[in-house]
Design goal:
The chain is mainly beta. It has helices at residues 2-31, 36-39, 208-214, and strands at residues 58-60, 67-83, 93-99, 107-116, 122-125, 128-130, 132-138, 144-150, 155-157, 164-166, 170-177, 221-235, 240-250, 262-275. The termini are far apart.
Length: 277
């Protein structure tokens, strides 16, 4: 009996010790910031900061003051590609796709000024940041669609009569879409924009199918993308904003060799509104 009582006492002490250690570890995890080793290869670095669901309020805009949005982050969550219908009587529709690219799809450190017009229209202009990411989408039929997710040069405006930024503030505008590949890229036959061969056939042909593949283009499509930003959460004390976005932009054209298709991207965003220094 004595041995049983001693064993039970030892087990109780050990279980209590293990419980205390595990609780401490959980508390440490919830309070300490993650290290590089804890983040590496987990995909957490691709996540944008977010505000609590209960974050509500507004950011008052002083008359004559200049403001900027800084630390803006856009994280895609859903991808769609516009496909032509098989039946001519049907309209083209967006089909959901699966992203093939590793978790490096978010845009980060986006910044730009906010200007207030005479009629109370707020205009945000993107000027700096990591504002493009190459992404490839896999469609249900097996087709792969590459595109350059970007908001380069975005100019987005709100409705009129805005004296503050609140959960009713929505921005809509257009942006430039650069080429998926640079002018120095060479295709499998050594053809490029600034380097490589002019053509890869015995005799150059005037046919369209040869001209598109021989004459490479790496142009930036001006205002070819459309985007809307809908603010749904605000921390008025810190100036933080968060919400959802949706953009529609053309896909890669393989340096002009094929026609672009429309790609729709939906996701969440985060940013900070500050006074311009």
């Amino acid at each position: 009996m004595r041995y049983r009582a001693l064993i039970a006492t030892i087990l109780a002490v050990c279980l209590g010790f293990l419980t205390a250690c595990s609780d401490g570890a959980d508390m440490a995890k919830s309070t300490k910031p993650l290290t590089y080793e804890e983040i590496r290869n987990t995909g957490l670095a691709n996540n944008c900061p977010q505000l609590k669901e209960t974050s509500r309020g507004s950011i008052a805009l002083e008359s004559g003051a200049e403001y900027v949005i800084t630390s803006m982050c856009l994280q895609p969550t859903n991808y769609f590609v516009k496909e032509e219908p098989k039946n001519s009587r049907q309209e083209a529709e967006f089909v959901a796709g699966r992203v093939l690219t590793r978790l490096t799809s978010s845009l980060d450190q986006i910044s730009g000024p906010i200007k207030t017009g005479k009629d109370g229209v707020l205009t945000f202009t993107e000027t700096d940041g990591i504002d493009f990411q190459p992404i490839t989408i896999l469609l249900p039929g097996g087709e792969e669609v590459p595109f350059l997710f970007t908001i380069k040069g975005l100019v987005a405006s709100s409705d009129a009569g805005m004296t503050s930024i609140n959960t009713s503030t929505d921005f809509q505008g257009s942006f430039d879409v650069p080429s998926y590949r640079s002018g120095a890229f060479l295709d499998p036959k050594g053809r490029g924009v600034s380097t490589g061969y002019d053509n890869a056939v015995a005799l150059p042909s005037a046919a369209d199918n040869y001209a598109k593949t021989n004459v490479k283009l790496a142009d930036t499509l001006k205002k070819a993308g459309k985007m809307s930003l809908q603010i749904s959460k605000i921390n008025g004390d810190s100036g933080e904003i968060a919400g959802i976005f949706e953009s529609v932009q053309p896909s890669d054209t393989d340096l002009g060799a094929k026609e672009a298709v429309d790609v729709k991207v939906q996701g969440i965003f985060y940013g900070r509104v500050e006074k311009a220094s």
